[in-house]
Amino acid sequence: MHELSVTQGLVDMLVEEAEKRKVKKVTKVTVVIGELTGIESESVKFYFDILTENTVAEGAELVFKIVRAQFKCTQCGNVFERSNFTFKCPVCGGQGVLIDKRGKEFYIESIEVE
Questions:
Q1: pLDDT digits (tens, 9 = 90+) for 69-80
Q2: Where does Zn(2+) bind?
Q3: Is 2 one of the annotated binding-site residues?
Q4: Model pTM score
Q5: Any binding-site annotation on 36?
Q6: Do the annotations mark residue 92 as ligand-binding?
Q7: Does the annotation list 89 as a binding residue?
Q8: Is 76 flagged in the annotation as binding?
Q9: Given this model, what pLDDT does residue 1 score?
């Protein structure tokens, strides 16, 4: 349910920036979401469509780029992306630890305007 609040923040930022730059219409917004944020892109899209009504971003295309988290095995050193909700190394079965905080992103990558 936190998608509503993060989407509200995203829309507020988007509209504020558009007003500063005297943009008449936002046509496309690309958002980066890390897989570990727990943010569901479908929910963001749902709230985005509602929250942008009667704004410069109404009807804008919303595109998502999902960033996969990478883990490193504590036993064999293998670097891998998790699958099937497990943090076990696919090579040796050891425990993986998160590398470089990848997968925790949530930000606007780009905005296209008319």
A1: 999 999 999 999
A2: 73, 76, 89, 92
A3: yes
A4: 0.85
A5: no
A6: yes
A7: yes
A8: yes
A9: 59
